[in-house]
Design goal:
The longest helix is centred in the C-terminal third of the chain and has 35 residues. It contains eleven helices and no strands. It is mainly α and 260 residues long. Helix content is 82%, strand content 0%.
Length: 260
């Protein structure tokens, strides 16, 4: 057990360690203004982000991301369940979904500014506009893929609609919903930064752009590293939630593998 955990940790940390080492060596003697040595960047990290900006910039960014992500998750799962359960509804809305899915969310920023202003609500809507699609589409496919025999069995046993929705539809589609949620998280982080580049006064994206415009290059690079660390941390948290929520799914596959 311990050997297995150690092996997984080594595999997970091996490539990042190699990349950091290569970056360190490649920039060790750098004299380029735009490509400072990695130790210089790391030396500015704590002073830049832990001396007031944690509450002023990082926390607002994370709250916007959380709000947009949760709204997209609720809308995506709700609409995806309805669309996936009805062939008629799916045929009606599919052309509209394909149209809106093809529009890059950053293009919507000027339009959202017109309708929602330049406050936090606009930034949340930008995140929602991008995060909703992988969740929605994966939910539709997950609901469509539920075995019809299971549906018929649930009807024969006269399960209530609410019970069928929770225990059959959502449970059966949950692996694909989780896959869509993972994709949406990375999209949400990207859109969080993009939304803060337009008419913002705080946030990680806003601060990184301000560093770039004022030629504070080490601080700018430290902001990019911070965004990467935020992405890794949130991905690990989501993986933990998914691991606990889909324990039944792993158990099912392990039992089927044992029978095979």
């Amino acid at each position: 057990m311990i050997v297995s955990i150690a092996r997984r940790a080594l595999l997970a940390l091996g490539l990042p360690a190699v990349l950091v080492t290569l970056w360190w060596v490649a920039t060790a003697n750098s004299t380029s203004f735009f490509w400072p040595p990695l130790p210089e960047i790391l030396g500015t990290f704590g002073e830049t982000w832990f001396s007031g900006r944690l509450a002023a910039d990082v926390l607002p960014s994370l709250l916007r991301l959380l709000a947009g992500y949760l709204i997209a998750l609720a809308l995506g799962v709700g609409l995806g369940t309805a669309i996936g359960s009805s062939a008629t509804l799916r045929a009606v809305v599919e052309p509209v979904l394909e149209f809106f899915r093809a529009i890059p969310p950053p293009v919507l920023v000027p339009i959202l500014i017109l309708f929602a202003g330049i406050g936090d609500w606009m930034k949340v809507l930008v995140i929602v506009s991008g995060c909703i699609w992988p969740i929605l589409l994966n939910t539709v496919e997950g609901v469509r893929g539920i075995d019809e025999v299971l549906r018929d069995t649930a009807r024969c046993y006269r399960m209530r609609r609410s019970s069928r929705l929770v225990h059959l539809v959502l449970r059966g589609a949950s692996p694909q919903i989780a896959a869509g949620a993972r994709q949406a998280l990375s999209i949400g982080i990207i859109l969080m930064v993009i939304s803060e580049m337009f008419a913002a006064s705080n946030g990680v994206g806003f601060t990184v752009i301000q560093f770039q415009r004022s030629f504070a290059i080490p601080q700018m690079w430290s902001g990019i590293i911070l965004l990467g660390l935020i992405g890794i941390t949130l991905a690990l948290l989501l993986r933990l939630v998914e691991y606990r929520a889909l324990a039944w799914y792993r158990g099912l596959h392990e039992s089927q593998r044992g029978k095979g």
